Amino acid sequence: MRDRLVKFFATGFGVGYVPIAPGTAGSFLGVAFWWGLTQLPRGWLSGVVLVAAIVFAVWCAGEAADAMHHPDPPSVVIDEIVAMPIAMAGMTASWWHVVLAFALFRLFDIWKPPPVGAAQNFSGGIGIVLDDLLAAAYACIGTHAILWAVHRM
Predict the structure, then answer these.
(1) Which of 23, 37, 57, 141 is the most exposed place for a label (fewest CB within 10 A)?
(2) Among the listed residues 102, 105, 103, the one whose alpha carbon sits nearest the alpha carbon of residue 31
């Protein structure tokens, strides 16, 4: 029962089992998570919830990897879910800001420029989640840079 519950959360309530692009599907859930965080009544509370979710994701992804006998199962998408709010930090809910942050996150998560790729060398849940957090940081910086450049034109 415990393994089933861990897999349920690690796979984003089963979203990670989609046959094509499970990481992208998990990222869509991450956008919903980001939106939910923006609805919290206090800004600091969203930070606390996000940190707690990241800690849970590290534990859950590691447990799921052990249960699935795979170091980084493609169906584990909790890492994308908790990373998207970082990619979208400081964004408005403007549709093109969301699309831009989403696209850049997927680009950096797939491309894995240094040190994103190296982060996968950590074992367990840390390695599964850390690369996505770093890709999200790149996406956030890139999105803000593009928005800044567009608004300066």
Answers:
(1) 141
(2) 102
Cα–Cα distance between 109 and 39 in angstroms, integer?
26
Specify burial of residue 151 (Cβ count, 10 A radius: 0-12, 13-18, 19+).
Answer: exposed
Range of the domain at 7: 2-14+22-152
Q: Dig out the tokens for 120 from the structure.
A: 């996968």
Counted residue by residue, the chain has a size of 153
pLDDT digits (tens, 9 = 90+) for 7-39: 999 999 999 999 999 999 999 999 999 999 999
Q: Which two tokens stand for residue 131?
A: 């690369």
Q: Is there a contact between 143 and 97 (Cβ–Cβ < 8 Å)?
A: yes
Place of tokens 């408005």: 92
Q: Are the beta carbons of 62 and 125 closer than 8 angstroms?
A: yes
Q: What is the pLDDT of residue 101?
A: 98
State phi, psi for 19 to the nearest 5 degrees: -70, -25
Q: By CB neighbour count within 10 A (0-12 exposed, 13-18 middle, 19+ buried), where does 63 fall?
A: buried
The answer to whether the CB of 93 falls within 8 A of the CB of 101 is: no
